[in-house]
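Fold it.
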Amino acid sequence: MRGKLETFAWRLWRGEAGLSGAFVSVLLFPLEGLWRLVTRVRNRRHDRAVAPRVDGLAIVSVGNLAVGGTGKTPVSAWVVSVLKNSGYRPAVLLSGYGEDEVALHRAWNPDVAVFAAADRGEAAKAARAEGCDVAVVDDGFQHRRLGRLLDVVLLSAADPLPGAVLPRGPYREPLSALRRAGVVVVTRRRHELAVAKSRLEALRGRGVLSDGVTTAGARLAPEAAVPLGRWVPGSALPWNGTGQNGASEPPTYDASQGAMALTAIARPDPFRDDVEELTGAAIELLAYPDHHTFSAGDVRRARQAARGRPIFVTEKDAVKLKGHLAELGDAWVVVQRIAWDWGEEEVRERLRAVLGEKRETSG
C-alpha cells in the first residue's frame, strides 16, 4: 500500500495523475496551507533561537528542499572526502531512519565514523567524543536544533519550480527557505544542462538566494554496472587487470532480452532511466517504498518476475541485498558518479573558507 501511495504522490506532484490527480490536488489545498503555517511558525522559532553547538565540532549540513532523490547521500560522501583531504577528521550524522543509508556511508568511507540517532545533538556529542572535529549531517537542512557553519542544499532539475509544499507537492519548505543556504547545488539526471541553469536563474529571479551564496550544478550519472558479488563500495571497477577479485577483464551482462531494475529508493523512475541508458535495453521496473528492507520472499518474487533477465540495483539497495546473492542470481550494481557541471572548485573553497584550511593531505 505504501509503495502505491508513493507512486501516486510522485505522479500527482509531476502533474501526471490526470483528472483524479487534479481533484486530489484541490482537496489537498487546506493541508498544504496547514503545512506552510506549521513550517513558518517552526522556522520563526528557530530564527529567534541560537541553536546549540558541540565544542570543538564544526557542523556542515547537506540536505534537500524537496523530499528525497536529489543525490544528498553521494554529495554528503563527496563533502566527507573533501574534508578528509583537507586534514580534518570527519564524521557522518544521520537520523537512523534509513539503515540502508547508514550502511552505505560506512561502506563508502570505512575509516569515517558514522553515527545514526534521531537526536542529532547526541550523535554530534558522540562524534566529538570519538575525536572527530567536523561532522557532515546527511539530510540536515530541516534539522535546525543543531547549529551549523554551512548548509549545502540540493535541488533537482526534475522538480517543478515554483512548486507546492507537502502534501500537495514535493517541497518540505517554501523556496524562501533557501535564504538559509550557503551553497545551492542543482542536480540532474536525464535533463539537459540548460534546464538546470534555468532553475538557478529562476531562483535568482525570485530573490530566494542569499547574498554571497555559492551555486553549483552536478549530474548524477551511471558510471558502470558491477556484479553484486564483486561489488566494492566506492569503486566502479573492482577488477584491475592484475587478477583482483579473480578477474582480469570487466564482466559483462546479457541484456539482449531486456532487464529489470529492482529498487527501494525515493524516486525509482530515474533509476530505471539510468539502467536504460547504461544497457540500451528495455527495462522493467520493480519498485518498493524508500528504505524498504528486502525479504527472502521479495527477492524470490523479483527473480521470478525477471524471467532469466539480469537484475540491476542501486548501491543503496546493494548493501541490503548482498546476503541474497544466491536467490538473486544474475544481479548487477549500478555505480553512480557525481559529474560536476560547474562550481565544484567553488564549493570546495566555500567549505575551506567556513572551516579554515588545516592541511592538505594526499589521496
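The mean pLDDT is 90.
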